[in-house]
Amino acid sequence: MKRAVILAALLAAAPLLADSNMPAAAYANVQLEDPAQEVKAEALMESLRCLQCQGQSIADSDAQIAGDLRNQVRLRIKAGEDPEAIRAWLIDKYGDYVSYAPRVTGLTWPLFAAPFALLALAALLLRRRFTRSAV
Amino acid sequence: MIATAGLAALWFAAALAVLQLFSGFLALRQPDNPLTPVVRPLAMAQAGLVAFAFLCLIIVFVQTDLSVALVAANSHSAKPMLYKVAGAWGNHEGSMLLWVTIMALAGGFVALLEKRLPEPTLLATLGSQAFVSLGFYAFLLLASNPFARLDPVPAEGNGLNPLLQDPGLAFHPPTLYVGYVGLSVAFSFAVGALLTREVSPNFARAMRPWVLGAWIFLTLGITAGSYWAYYELGWGGWWFWDPVENASLMPWLAATALLHSVSVLASRNALRAWTVMLGVVAFAMSMVGTFLVRSGVLTSVHAFAVDPTKGTFILALLAINIGAAFVIFALRAGTVSEGQRFAIVSRESALVFNNVMLSAVLGIVLLGTLYPLVAEAMGAQVSVGPPYFNPATAVFVVPMLVVMGIGPLLRWRRDKLGRIKHFLVLPALVLAGVAIWLSLRGVHLMPLLGIALGTMLLMVALVPLKGRRLRTVTLPLWGMVVAHFGIGVALLGIACDSAFSTEKLVAARVGETVSVGPWLIRLGRIEPITGPNWTALEATLNASYGGGSTSELKPQARSFWTPVQQTNESAILTRWNGQLYTVLGEEAEDGRWQLRLWWKPFVTLIWLGGALVALGGALALLGRVLSDLRRFIAIDKIAYRRQQQGRL
C-alpha cells in the first residue's frame, strides 16, 4: 500500500482498529498449506475491501488491518468455513462497505435490476429497428 | 514575468472565444454579415494564444519559479527535469490548462483544414466548440488559475506525489486528454450538424478522423494506464474497476460505438440520429470522467486532486453543455431521418447490435461507478467491485464478441447467413475443441470462455483478408482486421492471466531458494541504495526458469522524502510466454524478508492486444487522411485548370 506513514499511524490509533495493534498475525502473509483452500481464500480476499485505504482489496493492501483480515480469512477457510459465510460475518462486523460484492438490499436492488432492464431495453430497441425496417 | 504573460494570453484567448461563439452563430442567421469571414482566423489565433500560455506554464515549472503558487505546491528544485516538465500538467490547474490547450489546437486545426462540410455547418461547429471551451476558460480564469502568485515567495516547493514520478505517468494524462478533447470536437460537429440539419455522409466523413484519433488515444491511454497500475502499484493486477479506471473506460466504450456508427453513416447513409446521439453521449462521458477524476468526489488511490468546490464547477459545465445538446437534439431529432434501411442479416445490423451492447456495458459501468456515491449521499456505504462488474458486463460482452467476429464477414444492406457458413465451421470447431480441452483441465467457466472465444476471434478476424491480394487491401480494412485481431489477443491474455497465474508469498532468508510456477528464485542479497529524492532497500533475486540459466531481478522498497511516502518498485522479468513479477516486502523479526512472487503466463498479451487495437485505429486513420488528401489535391488541380482555361 502506498500512503504516508504518518497517516497510517494516525489511523491505526483509531478505536475501530484498536485490535490491530497486536503483533503480525500468523496467516497475514503466509499462504495456506492446502492449495485448494488457498485458492478459495485468495478469491475471497480479492473481493474484500481494505477498510483503511479504500481503493484496494485486502489481498493487495499493506495496511495492518488488511493483514489481520487476511489472517482471519485464512484461519476460517482452514477451519473449513464457507467463503460466503465468512463474507457475511465480516459484513456483520464492518458493514456493507467491506465487501466488493454488493448484496441485494432495499438500497442496492437497482444495481441488480440494471442488467435485466438493459437487456430488455436492448431487445426492444433492436426489435423496433428491425420490424420497422424490413427491406 | 513569464507567468503574467501566460495569464494575459489566456484572457485574450477567452475574449477571442467569446467573439468566435458570437460570430459563428450569427453566421447561421445572417450568412453575409461582416463577421462571418473572421470565424476561422479567430479559432486559429485562439489556438496560438493558448499554446503560448501552456508554454509559459512549462517554462515556470522548468525554472521552478516558486512565486507561482502551483509550482510551489507541486514542484521542487531537486526534482529530475522530466518530472519538472510533467509536473506542469500533473495537478488540477495545469491539467485543466492542458485540456483547453488541446481543445483550442483542435479547433484551430478544424478551422484550418476542414473544407468538406458546408460552410454554415462548419461555422456552427466552430461556434459550439467556442461555447464548450468558454466554459473551461471561465473555470480556469475564475476558479483555478494556474498562474496565481504567492507572496512571500516560499524557499522550497512541496514536490510531486512519488507515485506520479514515473515516465509512464508523465505522458498518461495527456494521452487521455487528447482522447477526451477529440470527442469534444466530435460533439461540436454533431451540434453543428443538428443546428444546420446537415446530418449527411459528408458530415460523418468530416467527423470520422476526430473520432478515430480520439479513440486511438483513449485506447493507448487505457492500455498504458493499465500497465502502469500493474507494474507501479505492485499488486499484480491489471484492472481493478477503480472509479478512475472506469472514468477512462466509459468514454472509450462510447467512442467505440460512435466510431462504428459514424462509419455506417459515412458509407451507407444510415443511423443518422443514432450517430449524432452517440456524439453527444461520448463527450458527456468525457466530462463525467473529468468530473470524477478532477472533483475529488472519489477517494481512491488515483484521485490525487482533492477539491470539492472545483467539482461543482465541472458538474455545472457538464449540465450546461450536455443539457443544451440534448435540447437541440430533442428539437431537431424529428427532422433527422434514420436514413437508409437494411435487413436483419446485414453488416449494418451486426454493427447496430454491437452498438447496443456497447451502450449496455456503458450503462452498467456508469451505474456501478456512480452507485456508491449515490448510496453515500443517502447515508449508506456500499462497495461495488469486480464481483459485480465482471458478470454484469460479461452478459453483454460475450454476445458482442461473437457478433464482432461474424459482422465483418457480412455484406452491407442484406445478406444470408448461409453464404458465410463455410467461413465459420473451422473457428466453431476450434472454439468447441479448446473449450472441451480446458474443461478437462479444470479451468473455470469465464477464463475457459475467454480463451475459447479469443482463439476463435484470432481466426475469424483474419477471414476478411481471405481471397484478396494483400497488396491491394486498403488501409482502413487492414485497420479493422488488426484492431479486431487485437481484441482477440487481449482477451486471450486476460483469460490466461485469470486461469493460469500462480502466486507465492514467502518469508525468505538471504541465500534461500523458493519456487513459483516453473521458476526457482534465490534471494541473493539486500542492500540500501539512494536515488535523487528517495532511499530504498533493494533485493537481488536470481531467477531461473525450469532450472535453466539465471537472470537478475531487483525489486525495491522505496522511501521518498518530498513528500514522505513509501512505495514498492516491483521487478518484472518478461519471457515470450509470460512474466515473473516480484515485490519486496518488509523485514520480519527473525531476519527473513517478505517476498511476493507471481508467475503470470501470457499476461503480456493483454497490453499487446491493446497496442494492436490502437495500431488498427492508426492504420484506418492514416488510410482516411491519405484518401482525403488525394481528394483535396485533385480538387485543387481541377480548380487550377479551370482558372487557366478561364484565362485563355
**CATH top level class name of the largest domain in chain A:** Mainly Alpha
Can you tell me the residue ranges of chain B where pLDDT is under 50 for at least 5 consecutive residues? 300-306
First-last Cα distance of chain A: 59 Å
In the CATH classification, which architecture of the largest domain in chain A applies?
Answer: Orthogonal Bundle
Largest interchain contact: A-B, 46 and 57 residues
What's the total helix number of chain B? 17
Structural class of chain A: mainly alpha
Which spans of chain A have pLDDT < 50 for at least 5 consecutive residues?
1-22
What's the SSE pattern of chain A? HHHHH
What is the fold-level CATH name, i.e. the topology of the largest domain in chain A?
Helicase, Ruva Protein, domain 3
Q: What's the β-strand tally of chain A?
A: 0
Instruction: Give the H and E element order of chain B.
Output: HHHHHHHHHHHHHHHHEEEEEEEEEEH
CATH superfamily of the largest domain in chain A: Cytochrome C biogenesis protein
Q: Class by helix and strand content of chain B?
A: alpha+beta
- Gyration radius from CA atoms of chain A, angstroms: 21 Å
Please report the distance between the alpha carbons of the first and last residues of chain B: 58 Å
Largest sheet of chain B: 6 strands, antiparallel
Helix content of chain B: 55-70%
Rg of chain B is: 27 Å
Strand content of chain B: 5-15%
